[in-house]
Design brief:
Layout: E1 18-20, E2 25-27, E3 30-31, E4 36-37, E5 53-54, H1 58-67, E6 77-79, H2 89-104, E7 110-115, H3 121-132, E8 136-142, E9 151-152, H4 156-169, E10 173-177, H5 187-200, E11 203-206, H6 216-220, E12 238-240, H7 241-248, H8 250-253, E13 259-260, H9 263-271, H10 283-288, H11 293-304, H12 311-320, E14 328-331, E15 336-339, H13 345-355, E16 358-361, E17 380-382
Parallel strand pairs: 2-6, 6-7, 7-8, 8-10, 10-11, 11-13, 12-17, 15-16
Antiparallel strand pairs: 1-2, 3-5, 4-9, 14-15
Helix pairs in contact: 2-3
Length: 386
């Protein structure tokens, strides 16, 4: 499956098995999710509330990953971003086999699993075995304190129980605090979520709500202000003001617990690596991320010895991604490459890692996903803090 299938009302739309997302390579050999979380982008693709469908065998998926032009041995790989792989037994069995294949292959990449469903003991054992054999598996637990009216089909007591279970097994956890909605942006709920994460997770990655145009009507039922606020579908993320204020005070509320607003930084921290996405020293780094001093030192040290970003390197990187023609400007102070062309998010994200700098463009064109900060989208905050 090499490309996004054209959308027909009511017909399932499938994504490429291997694609590049903002901070990781996505591998999706199973697509479609039985859960019906209201905010999920799968609704617009008729892939929510459906039986998961296998589009590639584990062997085929492994082959496609290694052959992808986006692949690099140091780049993070997120598995099953178009389903919740823990939702049904057949998907969990596939995961166990796939982890075994990647382990046997000696895959050097960090491997990310994202879920809000229960992780049963046999899967914990499979993850543990893979990690003990050298596969760098990280689990993202997506937990925002939302209720069943928004996250239909999610058993929240099981999601909460994943945190101590992962901790006991020694599996590193990133708390994925997304999305943010007014119903969960109360001090009581946010404090409960932060307390749980700070006790068991390595760090929190916090994001707001992505709003596609086709989802606006559905999401407005849960957040009426979306329907009357300009720019929500063009924002990188939309945040209730109460959540925005709380999450930016998290460093004071839980001293020493890292809270990131850039996923690449959360990954770098958990892996003990330096920033490779051009975030270090930017406004989001200095003003928003609650990042430990040792991690900032690690990023600064790596930057001081990084290969210089020359015109020759930029030209070669652009050409390798099929962008030999457009003009560009590079600001060495902010380490930002501005390409005067429309660039799909996947290509811009790959370029970011090719060069280790921020990449901005003249737009993302007909990209299948939502507005990206790469093409200039900004966060949007609605309402007043409580």
């Amino acid at each position: 499956m090499n490309g996004m299938r054209a959308a027909v009302p009511g017909q399932r739309v499938f994504t490429p098995v291997v694609d590049q997302h903002a901070s990781w390579i996505a591998v999706n050999p199973i697509q479609g999710c039985p859960k019906r979380c209201e905010y999920c982008f799968l609704h617009e693709r008729s892939q929510a509330g459906v039986a998961p469908f296998q589009v590639a065998t584990p062997a085929e998926a492994e082959e496609m990953l290694l052959a992808s032009p986006f692949y690099g041995p140091e780049r993070a790989v997120a598995l099953f971003t178009w389903t919740d792989v823990m939702a049904v037994a057949s998907s969990r069995a596939y995961l166990t086999e796939f982890l075994g294949r990647l382990t046997t292959a000696g895959l050097p990449n960090p491997v990310v699993l994202i879920t809000k469903c229960r992780i049963p003991g046999n899967v914990i054992d499979a993850i543990t075995a893979a990690r003990e054999s050298g596969l760098r598996v990280i689990v993202y637990l997506s937990y925002s304190g939302l209720d069943a009216a928004v996250e239909a089909g999610i058993r929240h007591e099981q999601l909460v129980a994943n945190f101590p279970a992962m901790s006991e097994a020694g599996i590193p956890v990133v708390h994925y605090w997304r999305p943010a909605l007014p119903s969960s942006a109360t001090v009581e709920t946010m404090t409960r979520v932060l307390d749980l994460a700070a006790r068991y997770a390595a760090c929190t990655m916090a994001a707001g709500l992505k709003v596609e145009a086709g989802a606006l009507g559905r999401l407005s039922r849960h957040w009426p202000a979306l329907a009357v606020t300009a720019g929500v579908t063009k924002a990188e993320c939309v945040y209730p003001a109460a959540f925005w204020e709380f999450i930016h005070r998290a460093g004071d509320l839980r001293p020493g617990y890292p809270v990131f607003h850039t996923n690449s930084c959360a990954l770098a921290y958990v892996l003990g690596e330096a920033d490779r996405f051009g975030v270090h020293g930017s406004d989001v780094c200095t003003a928003r991320n609650s990042c430990p001093g040792l991690q900032r030192d690690r990023c600064a040290a790596a930057l001081s010895t990084a290969t210089p970003v020359t015109a020759e390197r930029i030209g070669a990187a652009l050409a390798s991604r099929g962008l030999a023609g457009p003009g560009w400007d590079f600001d060495s102070g902010t380490r930002t490459l501005a390409v005067r062309a429309v660039i799909p998010n996947a290509v811009a994200s790959a370029l970011t890692q090719d060069l280790g700098v921020r990449v901005v463009s003249g737009g993302q064109g007909g990209d299948a996903y939502w507005s990206s900060g790469t093409s200039g989208a900004q966060p949007l905050v609605i309402g007043e803090a409580r």
